Amino acid sequence: MSISRLFAIIKKEFIQIKRDKPSLVISIVMPLAMLFLFGYAVSTEVDHIPMAVFDQSKTQESRDFINAYRNSLYFNPDYYVDNIDELNNLIDTGKVKAGLIIPPDFSQYKNKMTNVLLKIDGSDPTTARTALSSGIMVAQYFSNKNTEKELAKKGMHIPNIGIDLSTKVEYNPDLNTLTFTIPGLLGLVMQNITIILTAFALVREKEKGTMEQLIVTPIKSVELMIGKLIPYILIGYTDFLMVLALSIYWFRVPVNGSISLLLLLGFDFIICALAIGMLISTAAKTQTQAMQGAFMVLLPTIILSGFIFPREQMPSVIRAISDVIPLTYFLDILRGIIIKGISANILLNQIIIMTSMGFALLLIAVLRFRKRLD
Amino acid sequence: MEYVIELKDLTKRFGNITAVDKLSIKVPSGKIFALLGPNGSGKSTTIRMICGIIKPTSGHGTVLGFDIVKESEKIKKSIGYMSQKFSLYEDLTVKENMDFYSSIYGLDKKEKVKREKIIIDMMELHNRENQIVGTLSGGWKQRLALGCALLHNPKFIILDEPTSGVDPVSRRLFWNTIKKLTSEGLSVLVTTHYMEEAQESDFVAFMFNGHLLTFGTPSEIIRENNSNNLEDVFIKYVNEHGGMDKL
């Protein structure tokens, strides 16, 4: 193998990337766009749910009850209506996601069981689920406080027996969605960029006919392959570092585990992505076909890897598919190291599977690539 | 006499199809040799075997004294090749393409500077060094392609339909350059569909259906066939060996 030939290819490849707008956009704009899109737009946290109130009691008691909802921060009871039709209309038009209907005799709740209705718009299950559970919780807490007070007036109190459940949320105590999404995004960005750019670069030579000139030169297929891949390893890895830096310093998602382990395994994963990109390029004749192939591969990895939807809930067949996606294991590794701060021996399984997948894919890709050159 | 190409019973089969059938030929060095034949006659397959890109099914051959099977690496280093379709990098400049191919052929820095200057002078590419190749016109692209094929100072150059789709003036200039280089010792193999170009070559060979039909100087071949020119010979051969419908 000749080092100077290798350098000539790398240099040529970088000039081509520099002059090719799509490649530049994919390598610089795409990681930033994905990071900020997922970082800001995708949030599954639900609070301040807009709520309408039909208060037929209009007493101090009913106002205290409504305030309890506001103070929970889960609800914004900003719409006051005078009849049930108006409330239904607000839910229909989507102005509010919940409606609280307080009966005229509400203030009697201190002495007798009083029924209050909370209507919820169930079309978006995520919001509805939060509205339902927190709505029940607010009312129960309000009701229990009252029971205690009434009993105390009669010189009684609730006996101190039963179960007192203490909770402790580990790793992400604030249940911050960003803390969960951003580490996964690191893997996704690196995967997408490396796969698309690699597939593009390898097909380009075939599509433009420049391969015809190369095969009559003393260049060896292994030199051509390595020379063409090194730039994309560098770009994919630089993007990984860029997104990592932004997630630490901009999104304030700290790395709880070993950064050097993270950097090492990041490199490991690039090999997987590179091999997938090469495989796509061996099947495609044009850059358009390569793009289509890349999206066919990328879409299932986004949905099935556990990046958005938890894998535990998937039916066994779908889950089996997700088992053969390298990103699945890299996401476990990323979240393990960044969020949980766990060490390599706990992640050993994932590391072994991902590394073996990487080498197997690379071997197949190299064999197919060389066969095509000869 | 020294021979640039020596082929003996060279055969190439792809499955059931015999693309080249027992081709034997000896081409003297320092001459222009035109390989003629209709599309699909086995010209390209022969060229690919001569370049060492594909291996023959049987038979053997040497190019510049190197075995086409065992020493294909040495052949690739010593020959230049220019394909009918422009296959340099359109998104690179003239200079960047030359730099790339100089490095690929292993020229050191000093040689590179020297050879690039010679080529730029020879092809009159001054003031175009920093132009993006994609913006060059057809004639200039062709000059650059020839220039890049000559960068490493090969002893033998293969030109696969080099003048198809090029205007007459550029074609004239191109042939003048080729002739000048041959006078300095370069051996040339050219395939072409232009009979007036074949007429200017030192040797001509006709291929049809994988067979070599004739080999000799243009005047010999015209005389042997009692024809007026190579075009008549070409058509006569095609008719004798199965006619137009076999094309």
From TrEMBL, chain A:
The chain crosses the membrane at residues 21-42, 180-203, 229-251, 257-281, 293-310, 346-369. It comes from the Bacteria. Residues 145-372 form the ABC transmembrane type-2 domain. The keyword Transport applies. InterPro entries: ABC-2_transporter_component, ABC2_TM, ABC2_TM_bact-type. Its main location: membrane. It is found in: Cell membrane. It is a multi-pass membrane protein. Keywords: Cell membrane, Membrane, Transmembrane, Transmembrane helix, Transport. Belongs to the ABC-2 integral membrane protein family. This is ABC-2 type transport system permease protein. It comes from Thermoanaerobacterium butyriciformans.
TrEMBL record, chain B:
GO terms for molecular function: ATP binding. Signal peptide: none annotated. CDD domains: ABC_DR_subfamily_A (cd03230). PROSITE patterns: ABC_TRANSPORTER_1 (PS00211), ABC_TRANSPORTER_2 (PS50893). Residues 5-234 form the ABC transporter domain. The keyword ATP-binding applies. SMART domains: AAA. It holds the Pfam family ABC_tran. Keywords: ATP-binding, Nucleotide-binding. PANTHER family: ABC TRANSPORTER G FAMILY MEMBER 20 ISOFORM X1, ATP-BINDING CASSETTE, SUB-FAMILY H, MEMBER 1. This is ABC-2 type transport system ATP-binding protein.
